[in-house]
Structure formats: C-alpha cells, structure tokens
Amino acid sequence: MIPGLNFKKLPELKSRFLYTLLFLAIYRLGIFISVPGLNLDLLRQQLAQMSDTVVGMINLLSGGALENFSIFTLGIAPYISVSIIIQLLTPVVPYLDALRKEGEAGRKAITSLTRRGTILLALIQSYFVTIGLEKSSGLVLLYGWEFRVASIITLTGGTAFLMWLGEQITERGLGNGVSVLIFAGIVARVPSSLAFLFEAYRQHEISAAVVIFVLVFVMLLIWGIIYIEKSARQVPVLYPTRRGSLEALAQQQHFIPMKLNPTGVLPPIFAYALMAVPSTILSFSQNDTLLEIFAYIQRGYFVYETLLIALIVVFTFFYVTLIFNPDEVAENLRKSGAFVPGYRPGKETSIFFEGLLYKMALWASIYLSLVCVVPEVIFTYFNVRTLAYVFGGTAILIAVSVALDIISQVQSMIVSGSYEDYIQSAKERLKSLQKQLYKKSLK
C-alpha cells in the first residue's frame, strides 16, 4: 500500500481509481468479443508458431486480442506508431515544429493529426490482416468482400474506441491512458506464463531449482529496473541574487534532474520491431534463399542477440538527441541568468550538457541491452523461452515504467490532499481564534 492512501479523505483519487478499473474492465471484455467468420482454434495453433514475429509482438501488446481475433485485434499499436512517427518528424518538419511551439493550441492540432493518422493506418493494417487471413487455408469460414468489409470496419472501429478509451483514462483515471492499456495487456498474460512454468515442472521438463531460480531472477530484474528508472543525475544550477555573498548564492542553488535512462522503452521496441522482420518473412515465404539467409537471425542465436544490441545502441543515441536539445537548455539558462558551476553561460554550458547527454546515452544503451538480452539468454538456456515474451526485459520495462508513473501520480494527489487538509485546518483554527478574541473584546 502507498503511505497516506485514504480514499475517504481523497474523493478525487477514489473517483480516478474506480474510473480506471471500469475502463480496464471494458477493455478486457472486448478482448474476448471475436470478429465472426474465422476458425479460432486453427488461428491459435498458427500464432503459437509465429511468436517470434511481428504478429507475436502485436499479440503480446494487445493482451491476447489477436489470438481471439477480437474487435481489439489491432490494439493501440496504430496510435503508438503514428505518435512515434509524428514525434520523430517534429524536429525535421517545420510545420510540426511550429505547432509544437504554439502551446495548447498546437498540442490540440498535433493530437488531431495523430487521431486521423491512426484511423488511416488502422484501415491499411486491417485490410492487410484480412487479406493475409484469407490466404491461410482453413482459417476463414466466409470468403469474399463481405468478410473483408466487416473485418476492416470492426478492427478500425476497435482501434478508434481504444484510442478514445486511452484518452478517457488519461483525463479521468490514473496514468497515461495508452500506457495503461499496454500495461493491462502485459499483466493479463502473467497468469498463463506462470501456469506454463509450473506445468513444465509438473511434466518434469524442468526441475524445482529452475523454477525457483527463474522466479528469483524475475524479482531481481524488476527490482533492478525500478532502481535504474528512478535514478537521475542532479545537475546543479545557480541563480544570481541581489546580494553578492556566497551564502546568498548557495541559497539559490537548484538542480536539473537527468534520468539515467532518458529514452525509456522506445529503443528496445524499435529494435525488436526490426529484428522481428526476418521471422515474419520466414513465416510467409517459401523462398529457399531467404530461408537460408534468415535462418540464424532468430531468437536464441548469437547473430540475433548481437544485432539486437547494436540496434538498441543506435536507437538510444538517435532518440536521446530528439528529446533533449543542449543548445536550447543552455540558452534558456542564459536568459534566466542561471549557470552551471564551473561553466560559462552559452556555448560552454551547451558543450557540457552535450557531453553529459552522450555519457548517459551510453550507460542507458548498456542498461537496455542487458535488460533485453540477459533474460532471453537465461530463459533459452533453461528451456523456458516462452517466458521471455512476458517476463523479458521489454515487457517488464513497460510494466514497471507505467506502474511507477501511476504511483507518482497517486503520491502527488496524496501530497496535494495533505496540503489542502492542512490549509483547511489552519482556516478553522484561525476562525476559532477570531471568535475567542471577539468574545474577549465584548467582555
């Protein structure tokens, strides 16, 4: 439990908590509403053989919606893809960069573009999904445009509904709505993964020592991710005062927190998406040349892990330059009259932040590589590789990040409620004192 959590004294927190539970219940209910016209048993069998592909990743992020071919099959993935594309294009496209600087109006315009792009991408993806299903013999029970149109409309509508649901969670619930939906999808797979682990033990495929080691390893992995995600480098910043004494200057010292992992989970997601391409090609292609080329670019092989680490490093350095601009930070400090001790305002401060940023990007890339690769190597070695999709680094990293964000929001609301209680109590004491003074004056 979070210290100070009392729903009776925090009605807003209670309301947000209940709204979040309601929206997540609606989301999980929709996972089991299937689009008609498919042989679901055969679909699940084929998906089990495609767990290493892009299809398997979509199934994980959607919380199992794909294996049910539910109305939420595409999940929130189109929205995430369009959001990332717009975020990457914003520094490059002048129109988007201008919108970013316009404040609330610009944010609303970018949100509108993201929504329209999501619907367009969902239409395209749903079309190719239905075409791909029709090409798999025995999957589709009702061929033709009747099945295609119904599937495209249903899948696109499901994505649009999830996009709205995510916005409602952000506005009325706890945490970022889209992240909470992904979090719910990952957490929903935990029971089945644990059941797989214990079933493997019951079938004597693994020993009790392996089960204990895997559980302890997962707990240590979660603890390590929490520790790193909450770590930050505090950069001291001094603000000048009217008095020139050192004591007065020290009183105006502030800090700029720079997270040890400034990029979050995006570099591993990009890396896994690219590394899933060979597996996807192998799943649909019968070309012998391609089969030979991509045979060793699969999970569990040294080439795969090496390329994955390289992509994580590249995407970490690439993304960190997009989210942090040393020149802009240095210029803002100079305009406010602040400076970093030991560095002159302007260019010298910008160089300092740039060097610090690349150092942190290096450590972040090492951390992300270890978090993503080590669990896969361990689970593969102990013959429980299926656990990597739920207890692997990327899934746990997403789950932990979302949980920390929710806890931070709850703690902020608790602190805010405590201040309000203190102010209300102070007002009541002041009124009581005024009444006492008034009675004394009458005497």
CATH class of the largest domain: Mainly Alpha
The helix content is: over 70%
Tally of helical segments: 18
Q: Which CATH architecture of the largest domain?
A: Orthogonal Bundle
Which spans have pLDDT < 50 for at least 5 consecutive residues? 247-251
Q: Write down the overall mean pLDDT.
A: 79
What do we call the CATH topology of the largest domain? Answer: Preprotein translocase SecY subunit
Q: Give the termini separation.
A: 53 Å
- Supply the number of structural domains: 2
Structure, described:
This protein is mainly α. The chain has two domains: 9-188, Preprotein translocase SecY subunit, CATH 1.10.3370; 221-391, Orthogonal Bundle (Preprotein translocase SecY subunit), CATH 1.10.3370.10. 72% of the residues lie in helices and 3% in strands. It contains 18 helices and two strands. It has helices at residues 11-31, 40-48, 54-61, 77-89, 94-100, 104-135, 145-172, 177-187, 190-202, 208-229, 246-251, 266-284, 288-294, 302-323, 326-335, 347-381, 388-391, 393-442, and strands spanning 232-238, 253-259. A two-stranded antiparallel sheet has the order 1-2. Helix 6 packs antiparallel against helix 7, helix 10 crosses helix 18 and helix 12 (266-284) crosses helix 14. The radius of gyration is 26 Å and the shape is globular.
